Amino acid sequence: MTSLWKRALPIIPVVGVAGLAAYDLLQKRHAILRNFPVVGHARYALEAVGPELRQYIVSSNDEERPFSRNQRRWIYASSKLQNNYFGFGADNDTEFTQGYPIIKHRTFSDIAPATKANRGRGDNVPAAKVLGGHRERRGAFRPASVVNVSAMSFGSLSAAAIEAVNRGAAKAGAMHNTGEGGISDHHRHGADLTLQIGTSYFGCRDENGRFDLTKLIDIVDSNPVKAIEIKLSQGAKPGLGGLLPGAKVTPEIAAIRGIPAGVDCASPSRHTEFDSADSLLDWVELLASETGVPVGIKSAVGNLDFWSELVDLMSTTERGVDFVTIDGGEGGTGAAPLIFSESVSLPFRIGFSRVYAQFAEAGIADHVVFIGSGKLGLPDNAVVAFALGCDMVNVAREVMMSIGCVQAQKCHTGKCPTGIATQDKWLAHGLEPLTKADRAANYIRTLRRDLLKVSEACGVAHPGLITTDDLDILNGHESATTLRKVYGYEAKWGVPNEFDAAEISTIMNGPR
User: Fold this and answer.
1) Span 380-405, mean pLDDT?
2) Which of 195, 293, 408, 491 is deepest in the core (most CB within 10 A)?
3) What InterPro entries does the database record attribute to this sequence (predicted)?
4) What is the 8-class DSSP label of residue 363?
5) Per-residue pLDDT at 57
6) Above 60 in pLDDT, residue 150?
């Protein structure tokens, strides 16, 4: 018996490793373990001891970019309904940081924050404005969520990732922007859609690549499309069209887009259907009239001539966009030249405030729903965006993290280890959409809940009612200046008009 035991002893570790590998391959909770059985556990082991090691030999919790470890930890914990609180006190370097935002709570108010953490609870936080309401579009509606999913195309993201995000958005009552790659079957899992139209008109173009209005009408009528977003530019690569590396252009994606499979897909930098703000507005009105849904634009901010012309035309004619999505230069992308992602287009706060000021000075800010994007899926950044005048925020990389992204920064290679930003079937198979959908929904709900809690601390019923006087911008410990003065806002800029404010307060609190 002893001899048999000795012969069997060396086999035990092998059997154990084989059993662990089999378990990793069959489980559906962790994409890394399905794609890299056994060795993938090293990632979780290192993550568990990371805080202790980083104190001495690596980096601080708030040092890494584009998202710090603390920010990623908050997203991961929120998506899993785990404890997303932090202990021991502030970890950010407020003493020597210029530009740090501080939210000013009120001592007395009729509105009090809830005492429970309520992580992941489905608190209803609808938009303070009706999208398409000012121009009385046939499909005008009040968005059910102030947090929605930003544009990420099928192609840039895997089928499993698109399905997970769409299902998660549906569970959270949020909208899902298709990205410029068109609508796929993976977008049809319950969420209302914002159909993005880029310069290549994917999904609504003819065999020659020109825009086809009939196809657009068919797409809108046959899908849960609630709004159309015309993409003028993107924060991470303004002045460039989209780029989908050939490794990601599968036959399925090629068929959806109407392009060759396996070949780099580079969209033009500018549209062919219009060449000025005037002709853009003609096209907007055409799309809105033919489809019935609200139509808006998405753009990064650089030269302001376009915005000046747009505001002037909207002030003096009956034409206009229903919403404006401003994308900050710190926004994400699947692939872009370094110089564009790092140095072209203004950061969100500067770019948005300059555009909003033009609408406000012309007295038409209430005619438009303002949407912000570009690293706004974190509560502090989102609060600043709402104070500056955003009615909603769109999240992209943050919702990717909620379904497993580890900030590997390999999106452009097609080798994303978590199966999100890839078309590699082996890597993508590790991402189980149903499980990850719950995490996406949990993240969106938790972000909304945190925004609501902060709003209540400021004495208002809705994040859209937070003003630029409710925040200060620090210059280290030397001084603090209100957000209003930093960006040159006038009184009452950045908040809805009295009618919209009263209506959203009634929705949030009930009639008094």
Assistant:
1) 95
2) 195
3) Aldolase_TIM, GltB, Glu_synthdom
4) T
5) 58
6) yes
In this predicted model, what pLDDT tens digit does every residue of 328-350 receive, in sequence order? 877 777 666 777 766 678 999 99
Task: Give the list of residues 6+ apart from residue 35 with CB closer than 8 angstroms, or none.
Answer: 417, 418, 419, 426, 427, 429, 430
- CATH topology for 147-507 is TIM Barrel (3.20.20)
- Name the residue among 468, 442, 465 with its Cα closest to residue 391: 465
Upstream peptide bond of 126 is cis (omega within 30 degrees of 0): no
The total of other beta-carbon atoms located within 10 Å of residue 369's CB is: 26
Q: What is the pLDDT of residues 21-58, one digit of tens each?
A: 888 888 888 888 888 888 888 777 777 666 555 544 56
Check: CB of residue 70 under 8 Å from CB of residue 86: yes
Is residue 281 helix, strand or coil? Answer: helix
Nearest residue to 184 (alpha-carbon basis) of 207, 158, 206, 205: 158
Total residues belonging to the chain? 512
Q: Record the tokens describing residue 287, joined without a space.
A: 């799309």
CB 417 within 8 A of CB 40: no
Interaxial angle between packed helices 305-316 and 348-361, expressed in degrees from 0 to 180 and rounded to the nearest 10 = 30
Q: Are strands 265-266 and 295-299 parallel, antiparallel or unpaired?
A: unpaired
Residue 177 pairs in a beta bridge with 194
Question: Rounded to an integer, what distance in angstroms lies between the CA atom of residue 128 and that of residue 455?
Answer: 13
Tokens for 467? Answer: 């003003």
Cα separation, 296 vs 294, in Å, equals 7
Domain locations in the chain?
2-58, 147-507
- Angstrom distance (rounded) from CA 164 to CA 382: 23
Q: What is the pLDDT of residues 453-487, one digit of tens each?
A: 999 999 999 999 999 999 999 988 888 999 999 99
Q: Is the separation of the CB atoms in 386 and 464 below 8 Å?
A: yes
CB 179 within 8 A of CB 257: no
Query: DSSP letter string over 223-243?
Result: TTEEEEEEE---TTSTTS--E
Q: Angle CA(353)–CA(358)–CA(359) in degrees, nearest 5?
A: 100
pLDDT band at 126 (very low <50, low <70, confident <90, very high): very high
Q: Three-state SS for 475?
A: strand
> Can you read off the two tokens belonging to residue 19?
């059993």
Strands 147-149 and 225-231: unpaired
Which tokens hold the place of 318?
């009956």
DSSP letters for 108-174: S-S----SS--TT-------SS-BTTTTT-TT-B--S-SEEE----BTTB-HHHHHHHHHHHHHHT-
Residue with the larger pLDDT of the pair 12 and 136: 136
SS3 category, 272: coil
